[in-house]
TrEMBL record:
It comes from the Bacteria. It comes from Methylobacterium tarhaniae. Keywords: NAD, Oxidoreductase. Residues 38-317 form the D-isomer specific 2-hydroxyacid dehydrogenase catalytic domain. Belongs to the D-isomer specific 2-hydroxyacid dehydrogenase family. One of its GO terms (molecular function) is NAD binding. This is 2-hydroxyacid dehydrogenase. Pfam families: 2-Hacid_dh (PF00389), 2-Hacid_dh_C (PF02826). InterPro entries: D-2-hydroxyacid_DH, D-isomer_2_OHA_DH_cat_dom, D-isomer_DH_CS, D-isomer_DH_NAD-bd, NAD(P)-bd_dom_sf. Residues 118-290 form the D-isomer specific 2-hydroxyacid dehydrogenase NAD-binding domain. The keyword Hydrolase does not apply.
Length: 322
């Protein structure tokens, strides 16, 4: 089949260049031409760059697909995004255009995110990035770390991930507290934490960790007032979504040395090279690694290939509706 006659598929934001090797794309047949795009497509170029593709494969929320962009992609017939939900995709606009939308299974993302949360917490209290750099640079120890036993871990949100972090906190000998708008004492106890007020959580915790879904009601849920209540030297961990925190207030507090932070998520991703967070003291930054594990990505891409194959037969699987 000529390339011009092929169904063109774009696998977007394949940062690590692993998508091709984690699923049997060739099994889709010679009529499917797949392009793996490692670099993010800038919004200003998206309509032109993506116009030739009938199928877009999205990795989580890395590439927003809103109504304006959808309208500029007349060839689009199928969108597959990884994970169970993707608020960055306008499913209603796609459905109105007659575009099929499918998702994948979640994989071990929740487990892996909880593990990364604990890793960031430990990296902060033991100054690990600084000491890694010392060893690589031929130097020796320069910092004094802290223990976590007897300290207070405050969880903003106590769902599946928050409860896993609570279990590790208790294993480390920490007092674990929690707050969220609808959390009850019974649910807090079942999740392994003590329910406290919002003000108490921020003022009493040595480590505050966020585990909330981003929604209009939770955007900026950690603002200037909450950050101001935190103890001097306390640690704020965010492995959920960047906009849960008022970024300007966070940058100001970090710049003053009032608090420390372990951050895996940001308002803008990828985080710009000149972003002020990159140069602030007391920060441990990772590039949204929470769900990024080999087994999860293998499931993501195998499910993506399955979704394309099923769509081709007229029997799509895991269809998402508005």
């Amino acid at each position: 089949m000529r390339q011009a006659d092929a169904i063109r598929v774009a696998v977007l934001d394949d940062y690590q260049g692993v998508a091709a090797g984690l699923a049997d794309w060739a099994g889709l047949g010679p009529e499917i031409a797949v392009d793996f795009l490692r670099e993010p497509v800038p919004r200003a170029e998206a309509a032109t760059r993506l116009a030739p593709y009938s199928v877009l494969c999205l990795m989580r929320e890395r590439m927003p697909l809103d109504a304006e962009l959808i309208a500029a992609l007349p060839a689009l017939k199928l969108v597959v995004f990884t994970g169970g939900r993707n608020p960055s995709v306008d499913v209603a606009a796609l459905t109105a255009r007659g575009v099929t939308v499918c998702n994948t299974r979640n994989g071990e993302g929740g487990i892996a995110t909880a593990e990364l949360t604990v890793a960031l917490m430990l990296a902060c209290v033991r100054h690990l990035p600084r000491e890694f750099a010392n060893m690589a640079g031929g130097r020796w120890q320069e910092s004094l770390g802290e223990g976590l036993e007897g300290r207070t871990l405050g969880l903003v949100g106590l769902g599946r991930i928050g409860a896993r972090v609570a279990a590790v906190g208790r294993a480390l000998g920490m007092r674990v507290t929690a707050w969220s708008p609808n959390l009850t004492p019974e649910r807090a106890e079942a999740g392994g934490a003590e329910l406290v007020t919002r003000d108490a959580l921020f003022s009493e915790s040595d480590v505050v960790s966020l585990h909330m879904v981003l929604a209009p009601s939770t955007r900026g849920i950690v603002g200037q007032a909450e950050i101001a209540r935190m103890r001097k030297g306390a640690i704020l961990i965010n492995t959920s979504r960047g906009p849960l925190i008022d970024e300007a207030a966070l940058v100001a507090a970090l710049g003053q040395g009032r608090i420390r932070a372990g951050l895996d998520v940001f308002d803008r991703e990828p985080l710009p090279a000149d972003h002020p967070l990159r140069g602030l003291p007391g920060t441990v930054l990772t590039p949204h690694l929470g769900y990024v594990t080999q087994s999860t990505f293998r499931m993501f891409y195998e499910d993506t290939v399955e979704a394309i194959a099923a769509w081709r037969t007229g029997s799509p699987v895991r269809v998402v509706t508005a």
